[in-house]
Amino acid sequence: MKDNKILISASAKSCANVNREEDAMDRLGPVKFLTEGKLLSEFEEPGLMRCGYNDAKNLVRRLSSETIVGEDTNNLYPFYVDTAYDVRCLNKDIINAKIELHVENLIIICNINDVSTVFLMREVVEWTLCNFPSITVYVQDIFEKSTHFAAGDLCKDSHCKQSRIKYWSKEFVQNHDSFFDLVITLGGDGTVLFASSIFPKNVPPIVPFALGSLGFLTNFEFQGFKETLLHVLTNKVRINLRMRLQCKVFHRNEPEIDAATGKQVCFMDFVSEHHVLNEITIDRGPTPCLSLLELYGHNSLMTKVQGDGLIVATPTGSTAYSLSAGGSLISPSVNAIAVTPICPHTLSFRPIILPDSMELKVRVDLNSRGTSWVNFDGKDRIELKQGDYVVVTASQYAVPTIESSPSEFIESISKNLNWNEREEQKPFTHILSPKNQEKYKIDSTRNGENIEEILGDMNENTSNNSSSVSTSSQDEEKWCETESKAVVGRTRQAHFAI
Which UniProt keywords are present, listed alphabetically (predicted)? Predict the structure, then answer.
């Protein structure tokens, strides 16, 4: 990489900001650079990284938003390709990184509709209070006066102050961003979705324990919660950053006459913003007619949707509604957006996977016969009238879940979907009569011995031919005959092995 490139569009103020950031990084202590793909003392597996994160970020910034001049002005393409490769390698190292968690404030979220789950939560709270004196446990505020939870008895049994058990509400969580260090969920996938919904921005790492019927997100068994939590709280763990979608709803006002130009203008009102972990669904709701939706990508019309609706899902949501509608399975480590139609009125409208960098807009066509309805992870249903639209982008606030094993995604779909499971082909020897079974064994052994004899003759003939080269036609015919016998023998052996 050349150092003689000049940023001609960078102002003095922006350069000062960059220098100030670099100075701040230097003051944080010893700088840890990526050397051959390994962040010193943080990353386990080395990659092929050729530059650090700051270098890659600065290069992308220069290539995309500023002008580079110098001797390499006409040769920026290799420079661009190298930077893109470095960013991909950096992403690989981030996925393989292990993080050490320092937990002081722990929040527990459980399924409040099941009383047995409350007693399981009591066990988790009591074990945490006894084994980690520095951790404060937060449970939902509905348990503050609950006789089932009995916080006073828990503190008495744990020999700790009652102030170590505190209570959270949705408002408290939303007003205290980055306050909690770890989340424990007790329930099914719906409990994890609820945990995602109450954190509008930064979501703490989640340890999801399986207490539901299906568990694509809950890969930890509750029976071993003590060993799991002890490992999470005392060792480095690998974290899955599950992508969320940022959804903004806009409402179309009636057209007005602009006094200055005399033309009709239409203003859009911002309604709400949502961050979803599974999917956003736009459907026809109670309307008996088809939905007529316009799908835009980067403000360019991609297609019009005529059918029951449209699903825009994350990789995590690929195992939910999108899968039921015919969408593809996507690993949560892949950053992508899945667009799946719901009962389209055409056979050629197939599901499509789009990059997470794309900005999608789903708009109800002005000529639609009815309205549409949008919901976010199955909740917060909003009606969309003609001209209303939803803007969908990848959210900057991911949902981190503790990884149970490197193959947890394949294990979850194999367990819950019986993915690619079928009976293997079996031999037919078990249905033969005893007489034919005995004959089968004798013939199989005999054919195996014949093949060994034929192969031995072949090796002997080959060695003789190598010592003395013969040009007679008889030797050549004999070798061909031996080769054909070997082929027939191998074929028979394969037949008996079926």
Answer: Kinase, NAD, NADP, Transferase
Among residues 86, 93, 189, 377, the one annotated as catalytic is 189
**Lowest-pLDDT choice from 59-63, 286-290, 315-319, 339-343:** 59-63
Give the tens place of pLDDT for each residue, 16-57.
Answer: 443 444 444 333 333 333 333 333 333 333 333 344 556 666
Q: Has 157 been annotated as catalytic?
A: no
